[in-house]
Amino acid sequence: YIVYRAFKKLPEILKISREMAKKPHKFIVMLGKSAQDQLNKASKDMIYKYKLIPSVTDADSKILLVDVQK
After folding, report:
1. Which of 6, 25, 27, 62 could make an SS bond with 35 (beta carbons 3.0 to 4.6 A apart)?
2. Where is 23: in which H helix or E strand?
3. Contact 29, 4 (CB under 8 A)
4. pLDDT, tens digit, for every residue of 9-61?
5. Residue 41: which residues within 8 A CB-CB, separation 6 or more?
6. Residue 13: how many CB atoms within 10 A of its CB?
């Protein structure tokens, strides 16, 4: 697993993930309250399976789980 927490916008995180990981992997991105907006903007670039799940610490926030196959 690779874990990201609000350091870049989602398309940039996807790019970094592809560059860093050489094998299939999963990553977790803590997106916060703007999760759906970020996902909508990045979805044209996403070719991976993903799930958006509620955060346990904030009812308005979401966590993105992505399964990346190289």
Report:
1. 62
2. none
3. yes
4. 777 877 777 676 677 888 888 888 888 888 887 766 666 788 889 989 888 88
5. 10, 11
6. 21
CA 23/CA 14 separation, integer angstroms: 14
CB atoms within 10 A of CB 30: 16
Is 1 within 8 Å of 26 (Cβ atoms)?
yes
Query: CA-CA distances (angstroms) from residue 61 to 10, 23, 32, 37, 43?
Result: 15, 29, 4, 12, 18
Q: What pLDDT score was predicted for residue 13?
A: 77
CB 52 within 8 A of CB 29: no
pLDDT above 70 (res 4): yes
